[in-house]
Amino acid sequence: MKTTTLTGPASQVPGLRIERHDSVLSTMVPAFERAREGVADDLWIIAREQTGGRGRRGRLWTSPPGNLYTSHLMVDPQPRARIGELPLVAAVALAEAVERVCGFDGSGPGRDGGFVRLKWPNDLLIGGAKVSGILLEAEPRIDGRHCVVLGIGVNCQSHPEAGLYATTDLRAEGFDISPDRLFEALIERFSVWRGIWQEEGGFSAVRTAWLARAAHLGMEIGVRNGSREIRGIFRDLDATGHLILECADGEREIIFAGDVFLGGS
């Protein structure tokens, strides 16, 4: 384990602390360990590889060297009722970080011209293929404060071939980006968007930025949650980031959680 300091824009983030590991089960494990030890807000954990990385709903996240694996520990970042907004905050920040380090301008070699899109609630897509995952977990601390950890993985140099969704990586899209370079950009952009989110009414700006990159907006999608699947047109996000689906009968349903599939497939 090694604690390091970054140079460049990310080094200007007040209170920034980074803990580096060669190999961990998951970066979320040491993040929660530090939380239970009483570590203060704003700690980033980064590892070269994970031996037991997890995605949403307990799915395995393949974690060989060459990709970005990081977790961010926050302590009482907002009232608990608003913690569910954080994955969308992280998705917007990560999308901007990827666009910046790769120079996406709508004319790059990516399959959709290089524009990063967001699949609800927090997956990044390039050309319709998933390039990252974001996982949110939280637990109370013995002193009564609330610890929140965002786990973030980005396929920089490789990607799994099998899974629920088509996948890709930045190198496959024509961009040879190191995990450290992307990590520095992510820290800087997340600090900016966290600050916006924590302002009064700040999630409205997050919601607007998320919708500007929304994949499948106005299209028929399927949302699967356990054994239940519902289809409809993806119309909007509500004021707290939940998906608004227009069903075949014209009624609108608010979706709080689930896996999104284009066309319900």
TrEMBL record:
SUPFAM superfamilies: C-terminal domain of transcriptional repressors, Class II aaRS and biotin synthetases
EC number: 6.3.4.15
InterPro entries recorded: aa-tRNA-synth_II/BPL/LPL (IPR045864), Biotin_CoA_COase_ligase (IPR004408), BPL_C (IPR003142), BPL_LPL_catalytic (IPR004143), Transcriptional_repressor_C (IPR008988)
Pfam families: BPL_C, BPL_LplA_LipB
Molecular function GO terms recorded: biotin--[biotin carboxyl-carrier protein] ligase activity
Catalytically driven reaction(s): biotin + L-lysyl-[protein] + ATP = N(6)-biotinyl-L-lysyl-[protein] + AMP + diphosphate + H(+)
Keywords from the named record: ATP-binding, Biotin, Ligase, Nucleotide-binding
Domain BPL/LPL catalytic: 10-198
Protein name as annotated: biotin--[biotin carboxyl-carrier protein] ligase
Lineage: Bacteria, Pseudomonadati, Pseudomonadota, Alphaproteobacteria, Hyphomicrobiales
